[in-house]
UniProtKB/TrEMBL annotation:
The chain crosses the membrane at residues 58-79, 86-107, 138-159. Keywords: Membrane, Transmembrane, Transmembrane helix. This is Integral membrane protein. It comes from the Bacteria. It holds the Pfam family Anthrone_oxy.
Length: 162
């Protein structure tokens, strides 16, 4: 693969990791705090709607695209280990896969699916909501930090290659 294509892929991975960091940061810093301030049933209903709405092509492109680019760049970096910035590409790809992708699949998605099954006006819903808010946000903080660290690692790879 030519050096130019490699740099373009690294730039795309850097930008998409930054986009995902901003997405997760916004949820932790604004959206979830706002949902915690409204009546429980409204918070649950809104989060249920958000969890459906977020499953769209643009989100999938950013979320899965960053994962695929991270894997591709990590493999390419291992195969070309002497190229400056290779360690940063491997680190960035690993950070995203573990701290964003796996955390999403193992923690956030199952919580979203469970919340989607409750009646927002029920006692069960209110009990789940209290737990959901603290646990979901904690794991979202992990995703925020991991995607930001991924962004930084990919940016360092670009700097080392420059």
């Amino acid at each position: 693969m030519s050096d130019r294509i490699f740099l373009v892929l690294t730039l795309l991975a850097t930008l998409s990791a930054g986009l995902m960091a901003g997405f997760f940061f916004t949820f932790s810093n604004s959206v979830m705090q706002a949902l915690a301030r409204v009546p429980v049933s409204a918070g649950i209903q809104t989060m249920q709607a958000l969890n459906v709405t977020v499953l769209n092509p643009l989100f999938f492109a950013g979320f899965f695209g960053t994962a695929l680019l991270g894997i591709l760049l990590g493999v390419m970096a291992v195969l070309n280990w002497t190229v400056p910035g290779s360690a940063y590409l491997v680190a960035g790809g690993a950070l995203y896969m573990v701290g964003v992708f796996l955390v999403t699949v193992i923690f956030n998605v199952p919580m979203n699916e469970a919340l989607g099954t409750v009646d927002p006006a029920s006692v069960q819903g209110a009990e789940m909501w209290r737990d959901y808010l603290s646990r979901w946000v904690a794991w979202n903080h992990v995703r925020t930090l991991a995607s930001f660290a991924t962004f930084a690692a990919f940016a360092m790879a670009l700097i080392k290659r420059a």
